[in-house]
Amino acid sequence: MIEANTSTFWRATVALSIGSFMVFANVYLTQPLLPELAREFGVSALQSSWTFTVTTLTLGLSLLAYGALSDALGRRNIMVLTLVAVVVLGIALSVVRGYTGLLVLRGLQGLMLGGLPAIAIAYMSDEFSPRALALAVGLYIGGNTLGGISGRLIGGFVGEWLGWQGAFIAMTAISALCASAFVLLLPPSRHFEARPLHPGAMAGAIVRHLRNPVLLVAYIIGGLNFFIFINQYSYITFVLADAPYSLPASMLGLLFLTYLSGTFGSVVSGKAADHLPQPRAMSLGILVFIGGSLITLGESLWLIVLGLLLNSLGFFFCHSTASSWVSRQATSARASASSLYLVFYYLGASTGGFYLEPFWASWHWPGVVLGSVLVLLCTLGFSIHLNKYTEVR
Question: In the chain, what are the domains?
Answer without folding.
Answer: 7-392 (1.20.1250.20)
